[in-house]
Amino acid sequence: MNVWSKYKITIEDESRLENVFQASTTLFRWISAVALAVAFLLAVGALMIVFSPAHYLLPGYLKDSERAATEEQHMRVDSLQTAFNTNAAFISNIMNIINGDISELRESAAVSEVTSPLSPDSLIPTSSEEMKFSSMMREREKYNISVIAPLAAESMMFSTINDDAVFSDDSKKSHKAKVIIPKGATVSAIADGTVVSVSQSIREGGGTAVIIQHPKGFLSRCSRLGTVLIEPGDIVTAGQIIAIPSRNSARKAEIVYLELWHNGDRLIPFDYLDYTLSKEPPAPIIDEEVGRGRL
Prior knowledge:
The chain is built from four helices and 14 strands. Strands 3, 4, 5, 6, 7, 8, 9, 10, 11 and 12 form a ten-stranded antiparallel β-sheet that branches. It is rod-shaped and about 140 Å long. 32% of the residues lie in helices and 27% in strands. It has 295 residues and is α+β, with helices and mostly antiparallel strands. Helix 2 (64-98) runs antiparallel to helix 3. The longest helix has 35 residues, at 64-98.
C-alpha cells in the first residue's frame, strides 16, 4: 500500500509559546493546489485578452477590413508577376532576334501565360493609383515617341530601298509609306538586320511581305514584293538586294509599301530614310482596270 508522506506547516508566537497557524497536507494536495492556481490565472488572462482591446496587440491579428485588403494586395502581386514574366519573355525574344538566334525564342511560354484561363486576380477592379500610374506611363511614352525615337535614329544609318525610289506625296506623312521604283528595279534592305518573316500578303494588292529586325529596336516591313531572295533567319546588310517587286505589264513603275517601328511604336518612314526628296516619280502608274493614272 502506497502511503503519501504528510507535511506540516506551523506558525508559532514564541513570546507566548502559542501556535498561531498550523496546517498539514500531502505532496499531491500541494501540487493540485498549485496547478489550480496556475489554471485560474491563465483563464483570467485569456478573458482579459478576449474582452479587452489587448487582443489587437496579438501577432497576426487583423481586422476583417485589413485582412481583405491584405488578400487583395497578394492577388495583385500574382497578377503583376504574370505580367512581368510575359514581358520578360517578349524582351528575351526581341534580344534573341536582334542577335540572330531564333532557336531560343520563348514565344510559347509567353503565349501560354497570356492565354491561360482567367483567374480571380483578373477580376480585381483597377485602383485609382494604378490609373494614375498608367496615365503617367502613357505621357512618358508620348515623349519617347516624339523625342527619344528620332534621337535614337540619328545613330542609325538607313539607306534607300532603291537609288531611284521616291515617296508618293500622299504617303509622306503616313505610317505606311508608298514608295515608287522603276519597273524591273530591285528592292534593298534599309539597314543591317535579321530576317524575321517572309510571308504572302493578302493586303496591298497581294505579293510577299518581308519583316526585318534591325539594331537599336527598329523593325521594318516591306510588302508588295514579287521574287524574294532571302529567308527567315538570314543576316542582311544595308543596301543588300532582298527582293524584286511584283511586275505588272500595265505599269511603267512599281509600288512597294514600307513600314517602320521603333520599340513597338510606329514611325513615319519618310522622316527616317535618306531619300532625295526633290525627285519626281519615275513615271505615272497606269491602272489597267480603271484606265487612269494614279500613284
